[in-house]
Amino acid sequence: MSDASRNGKYRIVHYVNQFFGGVGGEEKADCEPFTIQGPQGPGRLLEKRFREGNADAEIVATVVCGDSHFVEHQEDVLRELVPLIRGYHPDLVVAGPAFNAGRYGMACGGVCSALQPLGIPAITAMFKENPGVDQYRKTVLIVETANNVSGMEEAVRKMVRLGIKRLRGEEIEFPKAEGCFEQGIRKNYFHAEPACGRAIAMLLRKINGDPFETEYPIPFFDRVDPQPAIADLKGITIALVTSGGIVPTGNPDHIESSSASKYGKYSLEGLETLDARTHQSAHGGYDNTYANNDPNRVLPVDEMRVLEKELGFKRHPWYYATVGNGTSVDNAKKFAKEIAVELIRDGVQAVILTST
Amino acid sequence: MAKEIERAGIPVAHICSIITISQTVGANRIVPAVAIPHPLGNPRLPPEEEKEVRRNLLRKALAALQTPIEEQTVFS
What we know:
heterodimer, A: 2 domains, four-stranded mixed β-sheet, 12 helices, 35% helix, B: alpha/beta, three-stranded parallel β-sheet
């Protein structure tokens, strides 16, 4: 029997940072975690709104931690806070809202995420550019807020609406209806109208200049400003990198043919060309016949050598390879960051990246 | 990967078969390749001509690296 059914009240634990916990501002951001019995700061508003929503809820405890302290000691803090929060037998944990406070957002997401495996429902709220969104939106229900505390009233209203549903075990609607960030969950359902009719209706609205809404928004990808152009190729070092899976024969690092979890770094020292005996493709996302017969078709070592002599640049004596086949963006980012560090260290000034 | 290497400070020319993916993931200097299973070659051509195709693609990539750009650019 849950506590809620024993005393008829839903038990909520609220996580806030040092500022909303009443400790202080940035100068107190290294404050260690502590607990206040009952609601504190925005928790009072939360509790009030829960009751107005006919949910007899009580914030039994407010857990406070300094933002810097949390992100610098996340593992230790969570090791302490998770059992502490669990000890209150909460029916729901609410963290934030964090608005656009980055560390606070990371902390709110971190707390909610750590509670998932215990089956404790947890929600938080933050501004769309808070790094906590990218980090945690797939695992945590995050309500979208304005970028500063002036959006508190609206944030609390949306959090309470969602919180009540979680408390009552009601179905969570599509993210837009809930005011949440998409978690990337695909849900099948029968639409009254077939896709062709909807597509034509959408097209007509588009042609007429009327507002329309896509049924499948293209995921957002961030951008990097282009680096300045290379003034002169003479004397600079250029590296080859490929996501096309060209590896030495036998694939010594066992790079996976799909969903690669690693990349390889291989020597080109003294190599004029690649051939079917020395190299192969480890890529599982295309027919390898042509690449195996002549790996230069994916990693152009032979003609780089020709141009190197002609144009006077230096070919970096190492190349990097992974398999870009269902590889997660996170992994690809991680690989490239590590590769870039080495390339910079080795004085490489430009990269030719080949992809299949 | 193109984006993250560029973010770290090294200009990247991305020779790739699927331009839209390269654009979506945020490569800045994009050079369209021949085909997915042989981006820098064409097995239907005689060896010398195939090498020429490859050399020309690399020349395009090198030219792209020497071209000042303000936004994502496809060098076709």
